[in-house]
Write a structure and sequence with these properties.
The chain has about 525 residues and is of the alpha/beta class. Helices cover about 30% and strands about 15% of the residues.
Length: about 525
């Protein structure tokens, strides 16, 4: 651990599954810069998001609290400005905090404690993407559908390339500026990209890194609709899987492009790390890499996120602290909630002030004891080896929650049968043990735990009421006001502001590809 308060660089990807990375055993994807970051750092083998959707996951991560405690239900929910975030806590420790890139804040507070924000967001900041459970699972405010898969392939340019190249440039330039003009106090620079989020398109350079014929199909084939659990059936229709025929070649092309997108992000990680080294800051800068959630990538016939299955809910998490000899890999169950208390733990003792005190409840735990190999938490207690994720967003019509404890994963879908998986014996999550008498005690114990402090009836009513209010406001005002963060004068009009994501991204693809028509 550095003797003085270290700088902190957080690099975040979007929709990057841990299971798609060589760090976690993937045999194909090439990410040498993430391998470099992991060398001398700690890889968390079982890190989870706490909500497999962008806005709630990021709000939860920044506040260190479950999304339901923040009343952030979906991708059009506003996190109150009165919630302290990691930026507030680090500012209290005399850090200069900078946000560069996507964070998908909703509402008028577009900084949530950061001293500076230096790039606008790629997605709407208003209530345009509010779900409507009353309309059913087919209601798709983002326009999500399987064109992302059936039209996958090579491009020269796309909207997400525009955005992430801008984020990288701004992030690198900010590192130069912080080194030159902000050397009287430490900084936290949070650089957040939108790759490898769908659609699955990449440039020829990154496509050519992989042999198309060697791109393996999903390990778990598609389920018939009648064999799906309730949440997966909802997502089948919510993702428009009935509107297109998805062939094996479509799947191979989408996976191929996704692998290229992962390598694209890896190169951006490399350039940020190279800049830190060029500036001579490598011995004074903690680097964290993670993602907001994963990506199903065709496993079980499913795509995108919004699911509690491993490809969607498992995220990469790597922490590299200079001058600290950590455990190389941690198998304990961890989550994005743990990032805030970990950064507080890094900032507090390093500045000689002891642990930073919180001013509100905190659901996460510092990861530093696990990195030291203590096997406990910051209070010296045994590590509570469980994580919780929840889902109340677009694509479902009732509250859903997941508990991973030890080897077992329990999934609760309100009003529908439970699911129980033994991930050690069944890593592909194919055998539901919820009705097995031999596991009845485990199922009962985990069901009680997943519902503790979380009332699904009350959550359901709160979601419906919130949706009604936000839909009313959005329809009444035609999407005004536009709260998009403006760093450049025209940022209120750039990227996606009041439209479906799919349509805007399709128009920005070059050369333009006519979207495959929906099946009649």
């Amino acid at each position: 651990m550095p003797r003085k308060a270290p700088n902190i660089l957080v690099i975040q990807a979007d929709q990057l599954s841990a299971k798609a990375l060589s760090l976690y055993g993937h045999p194909t994807v090439k990410t040498p810069h993430l391998e470099r970051l992991a060398d001398g750092g700690t890889v968390f083998d079982n890190a989870y998001c706490n909500f497999p959707l962008c806005v709630p996951s990021r709000a939860s991560m920044l506040a260190g609290r479950y999304a339901n405690a923040l009343q952030v239900w979906d991708n059009a929910s506003e996190m109150p400005a009165s919630i302290p975030t990691v930026a507030h806590y680090l500012r209290a420790a005399n850090y200069h905090t900078v946000l560069c890139g996507k964070m998908h804040f909703i509402g008028p507070d577009q900084v949530h404690g950061f001293n500076e924000r230096i790039v606008t967001d790629i997605y709407p900041s208003n209530f345009a993407w509010t779900p409507d459970w009353r309309a059913g699972e087919r209601y798709r405010p983002t326009g999500i559908n399987m064109r992302a898969v059936v039209d996958a392939g090579v491009c020269v340019r796309g909207l997400q390339l525009d955005y992430d190249d801008e984020v990288e440039h701004a992030g690198v330039q900010k590192l130069y500026d912080l080194a030159r003009f902000n050397n009287d106090r430490p900084f936290m620079l949070w650089v957040s990209f939108t790759h490898p989020h769908s659609p699955y398109i990449t440039t020829q350079h990154y496509w050519d890194l992989y042999d198309h014929d060697a791109v393996a199909p999903p390990a778990t084939p598609a389920f018939a609709l009648h064999d799906m659990d309730a949440m997966s059936r909802w997502l089948y229709y919510a993702h428009g899987r009935d509107l297109h025929e998805v062939t094996d070649e479509h799947v191979r092309s989408a996976r191929h492009a996704y692998f290229g997108m992962c390598s694209y992000i890896d190169d951006k990680v490399g350039r940020l790390l190279d800049t830190v080294q060029q500036l001579g800051l490598q011995d004074d800068t903690v680097v964290v890499f993670t993602s907001d959630h994963g990506e199903m990538l065709g496993e079980r016939g499913m795509w995108f996120k919004q699911s509690f299955y491993e490809w969607s809910s498992r995220v990469p998490l790597v922490i590299n602290i200079p001058g600290f000899q950590p455990v190389a890999r941690v198998a304990a169950l961890t989550s994005l909630l743990d990032i805030l208390p970990s950064l507080m733990d890094i900032a507090g003792p390093a500045r000689g002030g002891g642990r930073l005190e919180t001013v509100s409840d905190m659901d996460g735990r510092s990861l530093l004891p696990l990195m030291r190999g203590d096997g406990g938490d910051e209070d010296g207690d045994a590590w509570n080896n469980q994580v919780i994720a929840e889902y109340t967003g677009e694509g479902v019509v009732a509250p859903c929650r997941m508990l991973r404890r030890g080897r077992f994963k329990f999934i609760y879908t309100h009003g529908h049968p439970d699911l129980l998986y033994d991930l050690e014996a069944d890593p592909q999550e194919l055998r539901d043990l919820s009705g097995d008498p031999a596991h009845a005690a485990t199922a009962s114990e985990l069901r009680a735990a997943v519902l503790r402090g979380w009332n699904p009836d009350a959550i359901h009513d709160a979601c419906i009421q919130s949706q009604r209010a936000r839909l009313f406001i959005h329809q009444t005002t035609a999407g005004a006001p536009n709260w998009a963060y403006r760093y450049r004068p025209d940022d209120g009009e750039r990227f996606i502001r009041n439209d479906s994501a799919v349509g805007v991204k399709a128009k920005a693809r070059y050369p333009y590809i006519e979207p495959t028509p929906f099946r009649k």
